[in-house]
Amino acid sequence: MRERQLAQERRRAREFESFVAGAAGRLLHVATLLTGEPDSGPTPAAEELLICALSRTYADWDPLRCEDPYERARRELAAHFARTAWRHRRPRGGLLDRLPPRERLVLVLRLFEDVPEEQTAAQLGLPAERVHSLCLHAVAEMRSRRPERTPTVDTTTAAGPGTHPTTPSTTASTGPARSTAP
After folding, report:
1. Counts of helices then strands in the chain (DSSP H, E)
2. What whole-number distance in Å separates Cα of residue 13 and Cα of residue 72?
3. 107 and 99 Cβ atoms separated by less than 8 Å
4. CA distances (Å), 45 to each of 42, 70, 80, 117, in order?
5. Percentages helix, strand, coil for the chain, rounded to the nearest 5?
6. 84 contacts: CB under 8 Å, gap ≥ 6
7. What is the DSSP letter of 65?
8. CB 69 within 8 A of CB 53
9. I want to staple 77 with a disulfide (CB 3.0 to 4.6 A). Which of 53, 102, 125, 175 is the partner?
């Protein structure tokens, strides 16, 4: 009896590891968008969010036989983010960090994850009209405020006055070479 339980536990662990190997990258990207952290560099808040979601998914792994595990992990991720949204209010330099957490969540679920409006509304406990207006507002906000450009080095002054940075300097003569020897 004990051997059968151990075999089931090993099978369960292998199935979950296989799921995580295939889905963790995309789920981490979703978590990074939600937390507002930049993609380049460490993302500790997104990783913590993902670990919590995956641990809850693993806890319910056996009852998930008929359910899509990716959808379940995404729902856990969104639910945990909604519960801890107050932690993710300050800007962190990510793509969506200028949006409030609820708008960020709706935008990611609706546009990045392509979750239907009614399903998003049910998951968040909001009316579908509110989800629709939050999504519209988030899209308008992202369109209205373009990301600020990073300062660039002015290469025209480095090359000297009157030269274009992409063209070589034209100091050579265009005619045949002349010898100056006597």
Report:
1. 7, 0
2. 17
3. yes
4. 9, 20, 12, 26
5. 65, 0, 35
6. 49
7. G
8. no
9. 53
Rounded CA-CA distance 19/31 in Å is 17
Distance, C-alpha 136 to centroid of its chain: 19
Element (H, E) at 14: helix 2-35
Query: For the CA atoms of the chain, what is the radius of gyration?
Result: 27
Dist CA 88 CA 37 (whole Å): 9
Dig out the tokens for 23 from the structure. 């889905």
pLDDT digits (tens, 9 = 90+) for 125-182: 999 999 999 999 999 999 987 655 555 554 444 444 444 444 444 444 444 444 444 4
Distance CA 165, CA 11 (A): 62
And the tokens for 54? 């995956």
**C-beta of residue 31 within 8 angstroms of C-beta of residue 77:** yes
